Amino acid sequence: MCMVVIINHFTLQKVQQYYPIRGHSFLPCDRDFGLIKRYMKKKDRYYTLHEITGMIIECAKPGKFTVKEIQPSDVYDFKNWWSKYYKKHTVSNESANKPRSEKTIFAISTLYHFVYDSQIRGYITAYEQINGLVHHTFQMAVVNLGVNPIIMPQNIAYPKGKVPIKQAKLADVKYCLKWVPEEERGFLKSILNWPKA
Predict the structure, then answer these.
(1) What are phi and psi of 66, to 5 degrees?
(2) Cα 148 → chain centroid
(3) What is the pLDDT of residues 152-196, one digit of tens each?
(4) DSSP string, the chain
């Protein structure tokens, strides 16, 4: 969904997105994630996001990784925004007139290659295999994006500055505190005062 928004809102002509089959990828990013994973395995415990951020920065030569910790003010209310412009469920254009059992419904877990093209705004061309022959075209836009420009979300998702947490998760955090060393409890204790969902 984010790629559709990027293509429709910014000046990119075409974006191709691939989801490699698990265990079959030897892309440079996989080697980078392997570096991080090996480094993190050497650590016995870590309790906060700041520790994990530090480990990612330390695990490789200086400047290899840049890490930005997201603040609540960086997160916009996408959940209430997207339904004005995009569909949640859609059927491919190629199977629209077929019987119900033969229709192809957009399911991201069954598709591995997506093409977002500014020439056909609001549509995604999806392939069942990377660079496959069989493709499906899905209309994701509710409105004609050529006529009605998208207004990006303006509202912050968490105006109170904290993400609401479910009562059950708060109970789990409280229960786990007894195993966390006293010097590491500050962050977890602060979570107990966050808004409840």
Answers:
(1) -115, 130
(2) 26
(3) 888 888 877 788 889 999 999 999 999 988 888 888 888 888 888
(4) -HHHHHHHHSS-SEEEEE-PPTT----HHHHHHHHHHHHHHH-S---SHHHHHHHHHHTSSTTS----PPPGGG-B-HHHHGGGTB-SS-BBGGGTTS-GGG--B--GGG--EEEEEGGGTTEEEEESSTT-S-EEEEE-BSS-TTTS------SBS-TTSS--B-HHHHHHHHHHGGGS-GGGHHHHHHHTTSPB-
Q: Which amino acid is at 60?
A: A
Q: 20-39 b/e with 16+ CB inside 10 Å = b?
A: eeeeeeeeeeeeeeeebeee
- Residue 90: band (very low, low, confident or very high) from pLDDT cuts 50, 70, 90: very high
- What predicted TM-score, i.e. pTM, was given to this entire model? 0.63
> Using CB atoms within 10 A of its CB, is residue 167 exposed (0-12), middle (13-18) or buried (19+)?
exposed
The rounded distance, in Å, linking the Cα atoms of 164 and 191 is 10
* 86, burial (CB in 10 Å: exposed 0-12, middle 13-18, buried 19+): buried
- Is the model more confident about 145 or about 113? 113
CA distance 53 to 80: 30
